[in-house]
Amino acid sequence: MEYNQLRYIVEVVETGSISRAASNLYISQPNLSAQINSLENELGRIIFERTNKGVKLTTEGREIYHYAKTLVNQFELTEKKLLYDYNDNKIKIASFGSCIVRRKFTDLCAIFKNKNYEFILYDDNFDDAIDKLINRDVDIAFIQYSHYQEKNILKYLENENLEYVELIEGELKLHVNESSLLNHRDYISVDDLNGLFCVKKQQLFRGLFNLNYEVKELGLDTNKKIIRVNDSKSYEDILINLPSFSVCVDWKTEYNFNGYLKRIPFKNKKIVMKCSVVKRRNELLKDELKLLIEEIKALS
User: Fold this and answer.
1) Could you say which of 81, 186, 287, 292 is the most buried, measured as most Cβ atoms within 10 Å of its Cβ?
2) pLDDT (average), residues 101-114
């Protein structure tokens, strides 16, 4: 049994066709078929059932594919780590578009500006941030979640062999600009939002653990008059220049981030949010990352 044979099995399953797999692998179709037949003979098991519509896994084939996929993924991660991405001077972080993380990340870059570092900050949804962490594309990931999601998220992290540290708490509120007619309200009801655009940061409303349920719990219909954005600059520009609002987290800190945008609570509604940092279990962090985490935790 050879690694390439396992890689061929994975490619055939994921493309659903020997011809497409052969094209992707840059080998001839007869050669690929021969390699698969050789592996089947060696194992004494039939992996694929050949049909007029292509190939499909047999019962034994599904088990073989599962192990092959695991081994191929592990090989690719090891190859990436050893050959292409070995750099002790990289600081790689995934976040959820948080202004707090962004501010402290900038401070970290300034502290170590005289050293030969490459700093990378990704703005991702939960799924993408955790995938990057598992695949070692980042060193740590900052995530946010509601009290509704907490139990499931912590179980999910444990299953993925990840560990977390809770940093700060906050509350879902409405984001409006300082010139809005709603600016001086002590609280806002759903009726106050009639006719306004709802601005949504894409990364917060995609993936397994998004904020769609929480927004519904607040009584908001965010399927009307929506403006979707992918970056913080567009988000802020729209809130400042258009009659609009957004759902955001008001973190409990002494710092006033984006002071020109006001955070106003909902009437008779409170949803608690948390921000945590996630890392791979039992893995030591660089001192620079420890400093960043400590700085963010100190804000609470």
Assistant:
1) 292
2) 92
Which overall architecture, per CATH, does domain 171-272 show? 3-Layer(aba) Sandwich (3.40)
**Cβ atoms within 10 Å, residue 102:** 15
Assign 259 a pLDDT band (cuts: 50, 70, 90).
low
Question: Could you tell me the residue ranges of all domains in the chain?
Answer: 3-82, 90-167+274-298, 171-272
Q: Give dist(CA 186, CA 139) in Å, integer.
A: 41
Between the two ends of the chain, the Cα-to-Cα distance in Å is 55
Domains 3-82 and 90-167+274-298 share a fold: no
Write down the pTM of the prediction.
0.68
Architecture of domain 90-167+274-298: 3-Layer(aba) Sandwich (3.40)
Q: In this structure, how many other beta carbons lie within 10 angstroms of the beta carbon of residue 169? A: 15
Q: Which residues pair with 145 in a beta bridge?
A: 274
pLDDT of residue 300: 80
